[in-house]
Amino acid sequence: MNKLLVIIRREYLGRLRTKGFVISSVLVPLIMIGFVVVPGLIISMKTGGATKVAVVDLTGKMYESVRASILTNRNDEGEDGARQNQPAPAGATPDREAQMRQMSRTLGTNYEVEQVATNGRSIDEIKHELNARVLKGELGVYLVLPEKILEEGRAEYYGRNVSDPIATSQLRQSLNRAVIEQRLREANIDQVRVRQLSKGIELETTKVSEGGLERDSGGAFGLAMFVGFFIYMAILMYGQVILSSVVEEKTTRVSEVLFSSVKPFHLMLGKLLGVSLVAITQYLIWAVAFGAFALYGVGMLAASGMDVPLPRLPLSFAVYALLFFVVGFLMYATIYLIVAAMVTTEKEAGQMALPVIFLSVISIYLAFPVIRNPNSSFAFWVSIAPFFSPITMLVRIITETPPFWQIALSLGVGLASTVLFIWLAARIYRVGMLMYGKSASLPEVVRWLRQT
Amino acid sequence: MSENGVTLALHRVSKTFDEFKAVDELSLEVRAGRIFGLIGPNGAGKTTTIRMIVNILAPDTGRIELFGEQMSERLQDRIGYLPEERGLYKKMRVGEQLRYFGELKGLSPREAETRLDRWLERLKLSAWKNHKTDELSKGMQQKIQFITTVMHEPDLLILDEVFSGLDPVNAELMKDVLLELKAERRTIIFSTHMMSQAEELCDDICLINRSRKVLEGSLREVKSGFGRRAIALRSEGGEDTLADARLVAGLKPYGDYVEVVLAEGADAQELLRRLVESGARITRFEQVEPSLHDIFLQKVGESA
Fold first, then answer.
1. Which domains does chain B have, with CATH numbers?
2. What is the mean pLDDT of chain B?
3. What are the pLDDT digits (tens) for B261-296?
4. Lower Cβ count inside 10 Å, N or C end of chain B?
5. What are the residue ranges spanned by the domains of chain A?
6. Do B88 and A252 touch (CB under 8 A)?
7. For residue B95, what pLDDT is reported?
8. Which of B16, B104, B191 is the best substitution to test chain A (most A C-beta atoms within 10 A)?
9. What is the reported pLDDT for B119?
10. Overall pTM surpassing 0.80 (yes/no)
């Protein structure tokens, strides 16, 4: 037991101190944050100051409300007013619509609005003059509100740049609001009442389970896939580390000295646990970095008036997700351990990611029949079976939480098969390496396993 | 080590890989506080035997007793093993490396630290403690490996080709260390192809060839019990006597003397008397023992 700890400590501390670990621990969050933040910054980058908008109001009564509508677009306190003025379009949930508006508001442009007096000139004369101003750059955009705007619902937008989707949609929305407001006013309809009457519904999903009624936001299934994805990523990153760690001792011949001091099983177990701890440490660092960043982001958005829906998940699921992540990682890592035991150089292990990819892809596919029928006997067996259980059992826990003994059984089988595979790897390692000093084919491995 | 003076005993130990019998019914005893030479040609089964002794392999049949007990994992900590194929972690620092191996043999970190310092000093490597192992020369790495073998003060040391890769100065240093260890009543099993080294250091030897024991005993017994006897002779005349097949089995001329191999049953005294009678002038007449080298060649040749 003591020696096992010595091995784990070397694997763990030795790797923690490498430059690679430090760099990837710091760089990966930075890169990921960069991927999220930089595009957002670029998109919302405002080159230049406020856009000047000239409004040619041929109706003679719309200008003030249009101006207000365009300006309140930027104004946070005007949000409620704006919301009142715009009934939800059919099909979009209120949440979604609000989000879109918030989005364009955060990303939107500042406007300065001026009215163009007609002074009896013809519309063509006015346009001519405004076009010249646009070309000179004095004016960003001008809008023409025809006389029949209320009936026909058409307005004209002129500008040098008509392909800025944010600006055009923003102005369209502003006009939209002003026009609807005006129509309602003219029809003598109370706007507040319209808003109340046209309010959509929200579907609240509630899961019936043995633990009582639970609210479920529906995003949990994605989370099970997410855990699967994380296991897969962790394995791809650290499986190779385990492999090199074992093969290194073969090529440097350290293994013979080691075997005169420790059991191969302890050596393999120590390596697996040591490297797994490194992986977990790395993930924790990343999780803390992301968590801090996410909190910061949510805080920023909340401060700017956006309400961010946080996924609602029972704590028990988080615990299960963590457990299945750990067991899943260990289980898949043993594949690398076994292959490492069979080969003599890392090159020969080239194809070894294949079974890992194969098994994890299959378990993702298996998740679909399991979702549809989470309590079938098929689902039961699949969620107990090694390699498939981490994803499929999580899916079952989310859809229709199975009895606790099944979850415990699944974890137990996972751990037991991990131990079995470590034992197998240790055996292949010792027999193969010491007896023949060459890489093994499968039939040879089977034969060795029967020898001591 | 009160176990009636026997550190290690193998009782009819056999090991077969697939169809190949690597060790066949091997029995031997290694006595405490002595240097035991395990010699034999390549592929004779030396390494397999050693691996069974250090508990890396289990024998198919037979019994291995160490310190009077059945071989077990616990006893591994009382053995120090230097395999023929050296192995150190290339990228680890020398000090960390030694501490790791020491701890794997059950030393506490602190104890490992003081011992490795002492040994690095003794083998004149203190300056290298914080260097990465692959910055060291082969000979230095060899000495580092040796420290991993002895730092936990094992009662039984198993050294496979311990001198390979060492220059004469370091070889001499290593020899001194081995003799010190022997003086501390530690038992050393010494496996080598170099017969001159075995001859110089070993108290007892065991020669194995083709998986079987060919010869065993103290160096003295082995030599004196060995059939072939020879005389180094420098003389003028006496050719007739030397041609007598009843006395002389063969002649090997060396620089300024001849090695006379006595015939079966012939007596050296008889040869001397006949030579004197024949009027030869004798300037050298010396009974020589067969070297281990000769014994090795003849025994391995015989059983081939």
1. 6-224 (3.40.50.300), 226-303 (3.30.70.980)
2. 86
3. 888 778 888 888 888 888 888 899 888 877 788 888
4. C
5. 50-197, 211-449
6. yes
7. 92
8. B104
9. 93
10. no
Buried b (16+ CB within 10 A) or exposed e, A4-31: bebbbbbbbebbeeeeebeebbeebbee
Cβ–Cβ gap B104/A430 under 8 Å:
no
Number of A/B CB contacts below 8 angstroms equals 63
Which positions in chain A touch B92 (Cβ < 8 Å)?
A: 14
Residues of A in contact with B54 (CB under 8 A): 259-260
Residue of A nearest to B105 (CA): A261
How much is the average pLDDT of B216-234? 80
Q: Residue B157 above 90 pLDDT?
A: yes
CB B198 within 8 A of CB B205: yes
Q: What pLDDT shows up at residue A108?
A: 57
**Do B104 and A254 lie within an 8 Å CB cutoff?**
no
Q: What DSSP letter does each residue of B131-185 carry, written as one string?
A: SBGGGS-HHHHHHHHHHHHHTT--SEEEEESTTTT--HHHHHHHHHHHHHHHHTT
A253 touches chain B (CB under 8 A): yes
Q: What is the pLDDT of residue B93?
A: 92
Question: Searching chain A, which residue's CA lies closest to the CA of residue B97?
Answer: A10
Which residue carries 């923003």 as its tokens? A170
Cβ of residue B256 closer than 8 Å to a chain A Cβ:
no
B19 Cβ under 8 Å from any chain A Cβ = no
**Which of B15, B55, B56 should be substituted to probe chain A, the one whose Cβ sees the most A Cβ atoms within 10 Å?**
B56
Burial pattern A269-308, b for ≥16 Cβ within 10 A else e, equals: bbbbbbbbbbbbebbebeeebbeeeeeebeeeeeeeebee
- What percent of chain B is modeled with pLDDT above 90? 29
The residues of chain A scoring below 50 in pLDDT are 74-94, 212-215, 217
Measured between beta carbons, the chain B residues lying within 8 angstroms of A262 are: 104
**Nearest-angstrom CA–CA distance, B38 and B189:** 7
Question: What's residue A171's pLDDT?
Answer: 84
**Closest residue by Cα to residue B229 from B250, B213, B214, B209:** B250
- Looking at the domain A50-197, which fold is it? D-Maltodextrin-Binding Protein; domain 2 (3.40.190)
3-state secondary structure of A18: coil
Q: What is the pLDDT of residue A88?
A: 41
Highest mean pLDDT among A101-105, A353-357, B143-147, B248-252 belongs to B143-147
